[in-house]
Amino acid sequence: MLRFHFSAEDLARTRVAAAPHPLWEIASSLHRFQTPSGRWAYAHWYRPARERLREAGLESAVRRVLLPLFPRAAYFPDFLTPLEGTAGLEAGLEAILATPSDQVAAELAALARVVRVPTRLGRLTEREARGELVDILRAYHRAVIAPHEHWVHESLHTERIRLARHLLDGGTEGLLEGIGPAVRWKHPRLEVRPYPTENDIRLEGRGLLLIPSYFCWKGPISLADPGLPPVLIYSLHHEVPTGPARSAGPSSLQVLLGRARAEVLQAAAAGATTTEAARRAGVSPATATHHTTALRDAGLITSHRDGNTVVHTLTLLGATMLTSNPRDPLQGFSSAQGAR
C-alpha cells in the first residue's frame, strides 16, 4: 500500500496539474507496448504508433534503450520523470541532463535489483550519454505522443472539470475522494491500494501534485524516493468490463439514444471500425456512419483513421455515460493497481 500523510498545510497545497506531463506520458506509453492490458482504450493509437516508430527508425532505440529503462515493473528510475516536466518536454529533458551522476548511479542500481539492466546503460552517469538519451526521448515523443496531443489535452481538461466539481462540493478532501476507486481518503491519509510496495510518504507541508495521465493504465503511480516533490500519477481511463446485460428490457441508454445508436456507443468501448459497429448494431455501414457522426458531435466518441479504416473509441464523457447506466452491458469504473 502507498500512503500519503497530510497536514492541514498539505491539504491547502494540494493541486492538479494544468497540463500533461510529457515524460510521464512517455513512460506510460512505453508500458502500453509491454502489455495487452487495456488495449481497447488505445485501439486508435497502438498500431499507428508502431508504424510511426518504424518510419522514424526508432524501433531499435526503443528496444535497446527505452524499454530497459522504463520496464513495466515495480520500479523505474525517478530521474526520468522530473517535476520540471510539468513545464513542458524541453524543461523535463533539461532536468534529465542536469541530474547529478551519483543520483543516476543509485537509481540504476535500484533498477538492477528489479530487472536486468544492459551494461551499456551504465554510461548514463555521464552527461554525454544522457544527451543521447534525451535525443531518443525527444524523437520518441515527436513520433508517438505529439500526433496524439490534442486528445491527451482534451482528456486532461475534462478531468480537471470533473475534479473541480468534487472540490466545490467537498473541498480538498472531496477532491481526493474523487480521484478513483484505487484511492481512498482516510483523514489524514490518502491510501492507494493495492500497490507493489509498502511506502509511506509524509508530505510535511509540501502538498501533493495530482497528475492525470492519458497513457497510464490501472493503478496510480508515485515516485519511489519520498524525498522528491510528492506526485501521484493516475489514469484518465477506467476499464469498462463487458458482460451480459442485467435486464432483457431496453436500457435507459437505449431509451435516450435509441437502440442502434446505443449499440454503436457500446461497440466503441472496445475500439470498433464502422463496419464492426454496424454489425453490432444490426444496421448498414452507411447508417452506422450516421450514428458515429452524431455521437462524435456530442463528444461521446472520437474517430481516428487507421489505414483504410476508421476506428471509433470512447471519450471520457462517453465512458462516463456508459458506466453511469447500471442496466447497460458496460458498467462500473474499475482500476486495480498493477505493476508500475
Describe the structure.
With 340 residues, the chain is an alpha/beta fold. A four-stranded mixed beta sheet has the order 3-4-1-5. The protein contains 13 helices and ten strands. It is 45% helix and 12% strand. Helix 2 (22-32) crosses helix 7 (127-145), helix 10 (259-267) crosses helix 11 (274-281) and helix 11 packs across helix 12 (285-297).
Please render the helix and strand layout as text:
Blueprint: E1 2-5, H1 8-12, E2 15-16, H2 22-32, H3 43-55, H4 59-69, H5 89-97, H6 101-112, H7 127-145, H8 149-177, E3 183-186, E4 189-192, E5 199-202, E6 209-213, E7 231-235, H9 252-257, H10 259-267, E8 272-273, H11 274-281, H12 285-297, E9 301-306, E10 309-314, H13 316-323
Parallel strand pairs: 1-5, 2-6, 6-7
Antiparallel strand pairs: 1-4, 3-4, 8-10, 9-10
**What class, by secondary structure content?**
alpha/beta
The gyration radius over C-alpha positions equals 21 Å
Query: What is the 3D form?
Result: globular
DSSP strand count? 10
Write the element-wise H/E pattern from the N-terminal end onward.
EHEHHHHHHHEEEEEHHEHHEEH
**Average of pLDDT:** 87
Strand order of the largest sheet: 3-4-1-5
Count of helical segments? 13
* Helix share, percent: 40-55%
Low-confidence stretches: 238-249, 326-339
Question: Which percent range describes the beta-strand content?
Answer: 5-15%
Distance between the termini: 13 Å
**Major sheet summary line:** 4 strands, mixed
